[in-house]
Automatic annotation (TrEMBL):
CC terms in the record's Gene Ontology section: plasma membrane
Subcellular location as annotated: Cell membrane
Membrane topology note: Multi-pass membrane protein
Protein's name in the database: CASP-like protein
NCBIfam families: A_tha_TIGR01569 (TIGR01569)
Sequence ranges assigned to domain Casparian strip membrane protein in this UniProt record: 3-141
UniProt keyword list: Cell membrane, Membrane, Signal, Transmembrane, Transmembrane helix
Length: 163
């Protein structure tokens, strides 16, 4: 891998680390409470299993991103890292998808199931969850770009012919 490719990969990994870390922190610190009909309810990420899964997935991706920053591109582990990049990309995709589905129900409700929207009562919580989901989506896109770039750099020399 030449110097330009290493710098680009390092930059993408740093951006992914920042995005996953931001997503984790935003989701974990999201909470709000509201009073409806003299009943107080609290909205927090730990009330919903999809949001817990999201936090765990983003934290795993953050830890992985941090560890991979210290692995040399000349290391024999680089093929394993490529495989783990695929796993992390799939993990992030599934966690963002699950959380977006729950966030949509929180924002819009579901009239068929009789679920009312809650974002009208807990604005701070919904805004923070939205920020976390945007950061997570950005991290997923960065990992997808990183994965495609890594695959291209690993496998394109196999298909070039030398005169």
């Amino acid at each position: 891998m030449n110097k330009t490719m290493r710098i680009f990969t390092l930059l993408l990994r740093l951006l992914a680390l920042g995005a996953t870390l931001a997503a984790t922190i935003l989701m974990v610190t999201s909470h709000d409470s509201a009073e409806v009909l003299n009943l107080t309810f609290e909205a927090k990420y730990s009330n919903e299993s999809a949001f817990k899964y999201y936090v765990i997935a983003e934290a795993i991706a953050s830890g992985y991103s941090l560890i991979v920053l210290f692995v040399s591109s000349k290391s024999l582990l680089w093929r394993l890292i490529l495989i783990l990049d695929v796993v992390i990309t799939m993990l992030l995709t599934s966690s963002v998808s699950a959380s977006l589905a729950i966030a949509r129900v929180g924002k819009k409700g579901n009239s068929h199931a009789g679920w009312l929207p809650i974002c009208g009562q807990v604005h701070k919580f919904c805004n923070q969850v939205t920020g976390a989901l945007v950061a997570g989506l950005v991290a997923t896109i960065i990992y997808l770009v990183l994965l495609l770039y890594s695959l291209h750099s690993v496998y394109s020399p196999l298909f070039t012919t030398k005169p």
